[in-house]
Amino acid sequence: MIQLSNESLYEIITRSLNRMNDLLVGHGERVAYGVMRLLEQDGRFSEEEIGQIVWTVVFHDVGSFRKTDTWNVVKLDTEENCPHAIYGFLFLKTFFPFSQYAPIVRYHHASDAEIANAGADEKLEWVMKCLRIVDETDLVFIKHGQQNMDAVRYFFKERSKKIFPDGEPLPAEEFSVMQDMDAIHNFLLERIRKLTLNNEEKEALLRTLVCSMDFRSHYTALHCSMMVRASEMLADYFDLDENVKNEIYIGSILHDLGKIAIPVEILECPGKLDGRSWEIMKSHVMITEDILKGCVSDAILQIAVRHHETLDGSGYPRGIDATELNLPQCIVAASDIVSALSEERSYKQAFPLHEVMHILRKMCDDGKICPSVIQMLEDHCDDIYHAVLEEGLHTAEAFEQIYAEYYDLTQSKKE
Q: pLDDT digit string (tens) for 228-240?
């Protein structure tokens, strides 16, 4: 069960998305704020619809998983930007709890003709156009708006004449808010608090975030789902308290959030990482801590950020030892290794069960991994290994389906 408040969930997701590209920090929230204000003024949308659309707009650039230079970020060339819109659309269509709004992400860089031919109803088509215009306006703001807000307002007014024939729908003071991220964040949080989310919807929001991050690379796509499955099974075999099981579950889901800030080139490096690249890779743990701090309990936080620590103190990032590591943390740390060994990576093939267990036993003998966890793994190795592989298979199918659809949609635009 995802025992997180709406506010904590929102903080985790927006902090994570802000790590994708330093040039786009705050972009998703500013665009979500602008769209929200247009929806409120329009009058056709319920409180629930506005809340769900706000969540969708926050995720609108989730397909932008590669770093770009400043010029490409602010360029308003629809052909240039279309692929990331399609990729993000497919993630929302597959995992998002409010997938009925996924098309607004697909068409947020589309032409009027493409939007008109999308087959959306009148309200959804209007939201598509609003998102496109607010998104473009904020890219102008990123480029030079803080020094020239008049240029930003003029751009918005000119771009929106077709859908707002009666005049500019956002007064000047709304554009001033764009310069105050604290105010925007608080306005959006107030809206998020009003939306009732059940456990399945909260889990789907986190899954959208985690899968969009994992699916950046073929070699990271399966990891989180396989690791979570191993952690769940070990927690069951140890017959832990339900609350502790839930902490392990949430901590394992969130453990690699920091990798959203790691370049794909490092994640996919085919050989051993050199000094600088290795330091960048290791930084994902501290980034995860920055994202989660204040949003989850300390128990969940420590489960998430101690998955690379070892009993002998040779792990990272803090080099703590057995005196500071508890059983839930050791379960997740061992599960992380089980997943890494059981899946293909850019530098190795997937290992068979006997080799996985041999490596784990050697690490245990060397004082790296908790002996009781390794003993439990050995007692149930067949069941855990095959369950982990089955989980990986399900995730791989989703991965392949998204990439197949992505290829079909991007190719059709070229024809």
A: 999 999 999 999 9
